[in-house]
What does this fold into?
Amino acid sequence: MKGGKSMAEVVQREPENRIGMEFNAEKYKTDFPILSRMIRGTKLVYLDSAATTQKPRVVIDAVDQYYRLHNANVHRGLHTLAEEATAAYEATRDKIAGFIGGVKREEIIYTRNATEAINMVASSWGYQNIKKGDRIVITQMEHHANLVPWIVLSRKTGAELVYIPIDPEGYLDLADLKDIIAPNTKIVALTHMSNVLGTINPVDEIIALAHKRGAVALVDGAQSVPHMPVDVRAMDADFLAFSAHKMLGPTGLGVLYGKEELLSRMEPVQYGGEMISEVRYDYAAWNELPHKFEAGTPNIEAAFAFLPALEYLEKIGMENIRRHEMELTGYALDKLAGLEFIKVFGPKDLNHRGGAVSFIDKNIHPHDMATFLDTLGIAVRAGHHCAQPLTRLLGVNSTTRASLYLYNTHNDIDQLITGLKEARRYFRYE
Amino acid sequence: MSDNLDDLYRDILMEHYRFPRGHHHLEHEDIHNEGQNPTCGDEIELALELEGDRVKDVYVSCMGCAVSVASGSMLAEVTKGKTLEEVKKIAATIKAMLTGEAVPKDADLGDLEALSGVKKFPVRVKCALLSWTTLVNALEAREKGKEKAPSTTEQ
It folds into this structure.
């Protein structure tokens, strides 16, 4: 980090000490201004956090404060504002490095989102290391972000793309894993937690086998890093991608973690300001990590406001958040199981699933269900959730998905259940 | 329950959803096309049998929500017996109605008027347009001399 005061000193924040306190979702809810908004005459019940989470006041205030007090371009100016903005921008990088298990700050690359992070690996590491005859392994439950880049890479290089299948319960079927991750495998890219099924995959085991074959492993952590403790070093992933906006932070900021030895050998994906060390009319050399991958003016406001988001999560504790969501997911699954007209997809074992719960009504299309629930102030998602092949594999075109976070309560679930029953009456199936 | 929702799910629309028309295969298909809505995964397949320039029979199969299924069903009902020019005119009117453009005063929409409530739900407009866009693309491709239209994506 460059000199000057860290933004923790510049910004006045009075974090409440919640250590030792009971997990109190109802109280956390009050930290999120939007969660007291009225939608069509009723208070918002937000069950779409797998798409994006709402933002606590500390994050909203930070965006405001950034532009009121500290706005400047980073790594360029010599004035006070530039120094403050740069210090804050880099302080968040340090925070992120600590948050995922204490990696080097050089290994944290800012991107626009998890999608861009995965694309960077595919288009830089991918083209440098993958050729015809090689194998790329992904799973049948990937989000398009961790699917389409590999389809394109395999098409352009002639490498084969092989999928780890899923079983009827929504777990990865690892029976043939040793054959799937064959000796010619160069990369295994998989989601840590499915955004449709909620399945938490045994990434450690799969990464270990990938490494045994000399392959690298990329983990899509977009759904796991926000909801449970993730230690990328213990997991030994070579790359980890996630997005700030799915963990209380602003949109437009993602993270690519990569092992330094890999990142240092990778070519930049974009060229321009910030990512160079020296430019002549006929020559350019790249900046050191992590800046080599951060061409142009970045999303400074988002990095600035992501720090209080991470502090907020740490204060509550990722273990506690995971425990709360397990309990609440169990409650939701029990209640949904009591509705004979609802079919839930994904694992039932709470130890192996997170709080993204996809389901269908036997008669009402998910679109109609989502529109109906919205009139009750209940926000869910309907569609294929950017995982079209998986949705089709489940035998449907779309599902309704309720997804949970730290601010959701039993009452939110109760309202969802009531809404599902009322939909049956409204559409005259009961 | 809000009045708005009843605007969307009018009785006529729900009746078409429960008992969609045009759900029988044709002996002969002169025009065939498939369409999909990439945001939700809904899919439609439709075919026309022609007699000269006139629609003799229509097949529509839609895997989708109430709005897209009902809209497809209305399409099957209303286009039967019409000339292709008339069909195109109706399709343009529906699009205008749903996207807030001026609708010709002499337009007689019949059941299709039930779709007008959809425009209060902007995210659902593409559901109502899926079948019509798929049909229009097929007609345009036919005019350009192609036998089969490229599959339609309602954005």
